[in-house]
Amino acid sequence: MNLGYGKGEVNLSLPEGLTLKGVLEPPQALSRPEEEVIRESLANPIDSPRLRDIVSAGETVCIVVSDVTRAWQRMAVYLPFVVEELMAGGVREEDISFLTATGTHRAQTEEEHRMLLGGLLDRFKIVDHDCTDGDSLVDLGFTSRGTPLKVNRMVTQCDRLIITGAVTYHVMAGWGGGRKSILPGVASYDAIQANHALALKPSPHTGRDMRCRCANMEDNSLHLDMEEACQMVSPDFAFNVVIGGDGRIAAAVSGHWRFSHLKGTELVNDLNGVTVEDRADVVVASAGGYPKDMVLYQSAKTVFNSAEAVKDGGTLVVVARCQEGAGSDECLEILTEYPDQIEREKALRDRFSIPRYVGYLLTEQAARVNLVLVSDMNQTDLEGSGIVAVSTVEEAMAEVEKRHPQGGSVYVIPHGGAVFPFIKD
């Protein structure tokens, strides 16, 4: 069996004694041309007029797009149809601009901008959001949970604001997409950290708030804070895709930013949720290859999703090249510089950041299961984290045999960043 690894693949051969319980793939979606899916959504928006009926000639339009770490959303495929819809409403090319929702991520290269916009890059201006550039931000006040909301001026100075992205599982917000285009997408560093700090319980030494978890938005304070921030900005229209197991656009939702996103979460469960009878002794999961496995920070989604299918004390093997390393010095700091979770939590509360929180969750999982990472990183990089670093799948399988000499059950998850295993009650 081949698994995505960087821009190539690696072959997985399971050791004797392991019983394959199943390959956890998303349910097969009805195969439809992507253009048909996109056009149908734009023609039938949810709780909103059609986009071409919202805009008018002479209006300026800002389109918020995700950054290169989410290039798997296939923006270059769907954005031309959004532009086509705008121009059908009379908007001129020179009045359309793009803003990348980088959040706290780095700026994009010219090549990466091309990945996002495709041929549109030759016609339109694109700006990378910088969460630390005070001159580019405007202050909107505070959310009811105390988040100091500053956002990129481009989203407030345009006549019409459109947010785009993909609805997928998210380890803290329940689901990605929708409101996340604003917070964290185009918000200030302080706003992003304040919002994400809601993932911890208010009192020291009490750990994280388990309501802020994957596939849950009920009473999820982090998600609700994001929604409030989005409402304060009030986008005029949203367009989000849902990616199928083949990496193509399987569904799309558009219209009102909140209600279209809710519909998108239902579609994600239909397309990417997998129900299994029980947990396995071993899970082998690939992040899905480039760009999903560029860095450990991004590949952590595969850890958090796939760990749902592993028994306590079992083994989780994650195949993610991480050719750019951890992707965050702060994430690596939490992983390696503290002796235990108590000290990590204390450090996290003293100076919360999203990468530090991701590091905290990674070590939490490494304490619950045997976490083996197949990547370009080495054991020295991850010393003290509890993560076992190896460079080949064969080495990972040797680790599995050492930990499970009597054999055991195994799931294989080829697209661990997208698939979420639900365990039957």
Automatic annotation (TrEMBL):
InterPro entries tied to this protein: LarA-like, LarA-like_C, LarA-like_N, LarA_C, Ni_dep_LarA
Domain of life: Bacteria
Lactate racemase C-terminal domain mapped to chain residues: 278-419
One term of GO molecular function: lactate racemase activity
Residues covered by the LarA-like N-terminal domain: 5-205
Lineage, broadest ranks: Bacteria, Thermotogati, Synergistota, Synergistia, Synergistales
PANTHER family: LAR_N DOMAIN-CONTAINING PROTEIN (PTHR33171), LARA-LIKE N-TERMINAL DOMAIN-CONTAINING PROTEIN (PTHR33171:SF17)
Pfam families given in the database record: Lar_N, LarA_C
Protein name: Nickel-dependent lactate racemase
